[in-house]
Design a protein that fits this description.
alpha+beta, Alpha-Beta Plaits, 2 domains, two-stranded antiparallel sheet, 9 helices, 15% strand, binds guanosine-5'-triphosphate, binds magnesium ion
Length: 276
C-alpha cells in the first residue's frame, strides 16, 4: 500500500502537469488520462478492500475533474489563438489599406511620399539622380462617360498591370488617384544629362505600352498618356514640390497635344502660377 500511495502521488502530479501542456490537443489528453488512470484504478479495484474502492472512486472523480479542466483550457486556448489570429489579420488589412490603392493595388499617394522622401535623401547622400514620371491618361473621362465607370475601373487596373510589368524591381509605380499614376525611377544617372536620357527612354517605353489597345468586355480601347518628368535631387528636395513640378510638366504635355512627355522647365512654374 505505501508503494501504491507513492505511485498515486507521482501519477497525480504528472497528470496535473500534463493537463496544462497537452490540453491544446484534446484527443491527446484524453488518451493520456486513460492510459495513466485506468491501470492504477483497476489495480485498486482488484484489491477488493473498502480502501481500494474509495481510491477507485477518488481516481475516477479525479479523471473527470482533469477532463473538465483540459476541456476548459482547450477552449480558452482556441479562443485566444483565434482572437490573436484575427487581430494580426485585421492589422495587416489596415496596414495594406493605408498604403495601397484599393482599385489597382499599387502603392498609394502616402506610400509614394514615404518612398520619395527616402529616395531623395539617399540620392543626396550617394550623389546620383532619380526621376519622377507623372502620368495622366488622355481623355479618360470619355471612357467613363461612354462605357461606364465599371469599365473605366477595369481599364485603370489594366494600365496599372502594364506599368508594373514594365518596371525594374527597384522602381515604384503608384496611383495618386483618378487616372493619375506616378513612376519613381531610382539611381538612373550620376549627372543630369545621363539621368535625362534614361528617364526619356523609360518614358518612351511607357508610351509604347499604350500602343497595344486594351481589350475589356468586348471593347477595344485605344488609350494614350501624357507624362511629365522631373529629375531629383536638383535644387528641390521636398516630395510635394517635386510631384507638383512633375504635374506641371505633365500639363505642358497635355497642352502640347497629349500622348507625349515633357521635362519640367523652371519657366513652366510661371505658367503654373498664372494658372493658379
Ligand atoms: N472609373 C473611374 N474613374 C475615375 C476614378 N477616379 C477618378 N475618375 C475619373 O477620372 C477622370 C479623370 O479625368 P481627367 O484626367 O481630369 O480628364 P481626362 O478626361 O482624362 O482628360 P485629360 O486628362 O485632360 O486628357 C474623371 O472623369 C474622374 O471622374 C476611379 O476610381 N474610377
Ligand atoms: Mg486624364
Amino acid at each position: 500500500m505505501p508503494d501504491q500511495l507513492f505511485l498515486t502521488f507521482l501519477l497525480v502530479g504528472v497528470i496535473a502537469a500534463a493537463v496544462t501542456t497537452l490540453s491544446a490537443l484534446f484527443p491527446a489528453i484524453m488518451f493520456f488520462l486513460l492510459v495513466t488512470i485506468l491501470p492504477i484504478t483497476w489495480s485498486f479495484f482488484s484489491l477488493g478492500t473498502n480502501l481500494g474502492m474509495v481510491l477507485v472512486g477518488l481516481f475516477l472523480f479525479f479523471m473527470l475533474l482533469m477532463l473538465k479542466t483540459a476541456y476548459r483550457l482547450n477552449t480558452i486556448l482556441a479562443e485566444t489563438l483565434t482572437m490573436r489570429h484575427d487581430k494580426v489579420m485585421a492589422e495587416a488589412t489596415i496596414h495594406h489599406q493605408a498604403l495601397y490603392d484599393e482599385l489597382t493595388d499599387l502603392p498609394n499617394r502616402r506610400m509614394l511620399f514615404d518612398h520619395l522622401g527616402q529616395e531623395v535623401a539617399r540620392s543626396f547622400r550617394h550623389g546620383y539622380l532619380g526621376a519622377i514620371l507623372f502620368l495622366d491618361l488622355d481623355n479618360f473621362k470619355n471612357v467613363n462617360d461612354s462605357l461606364g465607370h465599371a469599365l473605366g475601373d477595369k481599364l485603370l487596373k489594366a494600365v496599372a498591370q502594364r506599368l508594373s510589368q514594365r518596371l525594374r524591381q527597384e522602381d515604384i509605380a503608384a496611383r495618386l488617384g483618378g487616372d493619375e499614376f506616378v513612376i519613381l525611377l531610382s539611381e538612373i544617372g550620376k549627372d543630369s544629362s545621363q539621368a535625362s536620357v534614361r528617364a526619356q527612354r523609360v518614358a518612351s517605353e511607357i508610351q509604347q505600352l499604350f500602343l497595344e489597345p486594351f481589350r475589356n468586355d468586348g471593347h477595344t480601347l485605344y488609350v494614350s498618356a501624357s507624362i511629365g518628368i522631373v529629375l531629383f535631387p536638383l535644387d528641390e528636395s521636398d516630395p510635394g514640390d517635386l510631384l507638383q513640378r512633375a504635374d506641371v510638366a505633365m500639363y505642358r504635355a497635355k497642352e502640347d497635344g497629349r500622348d507625349r512627355f515633357r521635362f519640367f522647365q523652371p519657366a513652366m512654374q510661371k505658367a503654373l502660377d498664372t494658372r493658379l
